[in-house]
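Researcher: I'm comparing several assemblies side by side, and this is the next one on my list. It has 768 residues spread over two chains. Same procedure as the others: predict the full complex and return the structure.
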Amino acid sequence: MKQSKVIKMFLSTAMLVSAASALAIGTASAADDQSAVLTSAAQVKATASKVKAGNTALTIDGSKVTVRTIQTGQTTLYALRDVANALGATVKSGNPDLIVTDAAGQHTLTLKADSKNYLLDGTSHQFTITPVKSDGTLYVELKAVIEGLGGEILTGSQEIFSVARLSGQFANPRFHPNGNVIVNKEDGNVSVLLQLNVHGGYSAITSEDNAVGAVISPDGRTGAFTDESGKLFLIDMASGYAGPLSKDTSVKTDLTWSADGKNIYFIQGDKQEKIAYINVDTGKITEVLADKVENKSEVQVSADGKKLVYFVNITGKADNDKDSTEESLQIDYSKAGTQVFSLDLTASEAAAVQWTKDADNKLYLSLLPDGKVVYISADPEGIVSNNVLKVISADGAKTADLAADIDVIQSRLLHGKLIVVGTIGDGLYKVYEISSTGIKKELYSSQAEITEAAVSSSGTVALIADGKVVLVQDGKVTSLTQ
Amino acid sequence: MNIFKKLSLITIASALLVSFPVTSSVWAKDELKGKVTINGSTALLPMTLQAAKEFQKLHPKVKIAASGKGSVTGPQAVKKGIAEIGACDWDASTDVPGFKAFDGQVAHKVAVIPFATIVNKNVKVDNLTTEQLQGIFSGKITNWKAVGGEDEDIVVITRSFGSGTRVNYQAKALDGGDIVKKEKNYKEVGSSGDMKTAVATTPNSIGYIDLTYITGGDIKAVKFNGVEATTDNVINGKYKIWSYGYYMTNGKPTGATKEFIEYVQSKKFQEGSLKKLKFIPISAMK
């Protein structure tokens, strides 16, 4: 199977909720249907005499639009038709009412001039300021209309999302090739793989629960995941189409793509005792290591495909007599814990080599482009207070601190760069790019509690901060969720 | 790959708009510390180690050490104070055939474990009834011909005393019947892996194992009273040879032990990694 063929088979993107197309509408809008709003000539004249007309620039879904406004007292009212057009909503006359429906068809607002009362999805509400008709155009409160149609105005700004940002629990940010951010929404009874539009709006990539943990290919176009039968699936990140790559049902965990995107490596077996890879063109599975050492995890493959590193969770050793008597039971946990192993793929019959022996907790294994290996070391005894970034030399001979001054929360290798989240003495949460020699480049700093970070190939940063998904692009910080 | 399934997106939009009470799945500056030791069921060990790996990313300073030696050693280790958690394929706070209750211990359901009767690939039989299994494991039926197979001696492979798989198999497949030791054509093994190997390499053999281990072509599962051993048949109630897997603790757990058990029971783990390791979530049986 050619991956390119697979991708071509996917149909067009199935966006559930799209950001409204932003239009420059300041001069293009037609007058409202004269029959829709009945006002007497005297009323129009009286109203017109009290208001001051003008234009206001708004930012809707990242684009500037100009909207006609009138000033009545201390309040600015906005031309309903201009706002609706900018949101992608439709306006219909339903004599004497105007009926506004949002782009997704989920909300309907029914209102008329000179009445504070309006219906939102069939429920009665009231504006604070009565809508005003001036020169044939109906002007309304912006906030009520935006929120009524499912949008959101950011506090303290004129920035508007046509679709209100999501709230909830988000995890595992990564970038779509189109620049949008892919995250898992994992709260309550809903687990969904989402695409958050950087200019507002969102879409579910798939409803398949198993795809929530999909591992994305280096080019960002394809995800890989397994289901409960053990089958491995590919999912097109643009269309959401998914299909099995192989009929093999052995247990597969810890999927990781090769740098060229041609193979997916994984831990295989009921006891996670093997390492194998599957070719994404052919679906053929090739066994790499079957040394009967159980409980392997986090396999990482070098960009040139010549070296593997992985964790082995070494279990305690329990012994008893043949009758399983309580008196005879003894357990030795002294050697239990996670250790780093390496395998040279260039040597035939090569055996895996254990590179670490310390009893610290080891997390987030990364194999750097120069062959060095990095992991987070946490001391369960508390003697070392920080969770320290450790580096192992390319030959496995030396282990040293890479950044002992950072209390590390997460580290990931992205586009060949080591991206690290942690805190330092000043109490701020920071995102760094750290070289294999320990040189730190600060990418972002915040008082908000950053737990995860991703960096795109162009340098845009996506964060989980205080539980929200935050985008840092060209110095501008945008919270993509509430 | 020619066939792709388009996954339904229809219900997602409204679902996304609903806010649910949440528990934090990722949280920084974690202060939870402690050591959690877990011993017992070898069947539950892969699940325990996977959960430990994920839990430690949330709580880096919690040390989790696990070992497997058969279910009974789980509550035994808790009783002796040499493990905080005993992984056991039955509720060890109650009496079961062969084992008294472990007083003072609290059982926490963590998974559903289906078991299946397995035979070597050369055995022609594909269905066995409760009565036939009782006859085979009690030694009254010794030839496959008596249950519709070839004229060959039956080789019985069974788990050692103290195995949770054995306890559940006796209780559910044999309806409380005995497994009787024989002079010949009989072997006891100490783990699920050894059971798989023994049946796979012994012609005319019969044994029993967790459903997750049935991979490869050298062993095959046989139907039980005409019902195929599948997770779907466990969930829909047609297939009876299954049990909950339990974590046993000495009284109510606290600290890191409590947090770890709650993580294993969480929807995130149950519907995620646990299913991908081919266990059945406990919620599926409600």
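Model: For your comparison table: The first helix of chain B runs from residue 12 to 17.
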